């Protein structure tokens, strides 16, 4: 599936000298889509206890179990990273005095995990929940090698700008001259996607891969001449 959406801006510069050729500036946008082959999930373990040591020990035990399960399911160590580790008091306000006192401690350990085998994603989510993950704050799909899709989006953006420039030049009754400059605007950007849900396996957490999309924007300046 390939789609293009266009956002074109046209500007004619006023010549500084009588013999200076006119110019036309066109901005084209291109989009490219592909099925993702990687998912990134953010999950964690949060535990409370009467003292700080017990809270951190309980959290660490849960994370250790999750790390072991991820390794057993083929997730490589380079694809697992601790993204947040915290420990703090739990405050409770007494109804009688209104004074806040410490009634326990809460420890939290959050992991960011890349799953390169999407067929196993539902099973991975189900397994880490079994092993003690009680925080889940993110799921994103992407490509392990986005370069080919980025180039496709750039080509689409240039083709868009060329087509629009020819159209405007024809409508204005002028010749479209050579390209004077090409500038990429803002780099290649990911696009949010919506997709229906499906279950990776009957007993696993349902996940949806859908498509991932990238968009590119390019501004091209052309010289103009009079159509005689």
Automatic annotation (TrEMBL):
InterPro entries: 26kDa_periplasmic_antigen, SIMPL/DUF541. Keywords: Signal. Gene3D superfamilies: Protein of unknown function (DUF541), domain 1, Protein of unknown function (DUF541), domain 2. GO terms for biological process: DNA damage response. Pfam families: SIMPL (PF04402). Residues 1-18 form the signal peptide. The keyword Ligase does not apply. It comes from the Bacteria. This is SIMPL domain-containing protein. It comes from Thetidibacter halocola. The lineage of its organism: Bacteria, Pseudomonadati, Pseudomonadota, Alphaproteobacteria, Rhodobacterales.
